[in-house]
Amino acid sequence: MTFTCRPCSHRSSHRVSKQGYYHGTVLISCPSCKNKHLISDHLQIFSDSRITLDDIMREKGQLVKRGALGGDGDVEFWDDGTTTTTEPTQPTRQIGDS
Ligand SMILES: [Zn+2]
């Protein structure tokens, strides 16, 4: 998708999966001003409080089925509908190139 950053008017292209966009939570990072912009939040990760990415990794590790962190700082979370038992001590294992 092509994204235009409102604060700095910078246009940039980002790879966002359909599953993340329609069913997950997607954050993209503006390469110009480094602001993170919430594109979709179906998992309601950011809906009720000011929460940081670190908090998400730690507290929502079991909710977030998969996450992808792009090289330019884009973050995508989604739940693929299956149930998986994860080790709560290693939530960040779920984030990475897959
Ligand atoms: Zn920007």
Automatic annotation (TrEMBL):
UniProt cross-references to Pfam families, sorted A to Z:
zf-DNL
Q: Which UniProt keywords apply?
A: Metal-binding, Zinc, Zinc-finger
DNL-type domain ranges (all copies): 1-89
Q: Where is this region: Disordered?
A: 75-98
Q: Which InterPro entries match?
A: Mt_import_TIM15, Znf_DNL-typ
| Keyword Zinc in annotation | yes
Domain of life of the source: Eukaryota
> One GO CC annotation, please?
mitochondrion
The UniProt entry's GO biological process terms, in alphabetical order, are: protein folding; protein import into mitochondrial matrix; protein stabilization
Q: Where is the composition biased (Low complexity)?
A: 82-92
Which GO molecular function annotations are given, in alphabetical order? protein-folding chaperone binding; zinc ion binding
The name under which this protein is listed is: DNL-type domain-containing protein
Which organism does this sequence originate in? Cryomyces minteri
Which taxonomic lineage does the organism of this UniProt entry have? Eukaryota, Fungi, Dikarya, Ascomycota, Pezizomycotina
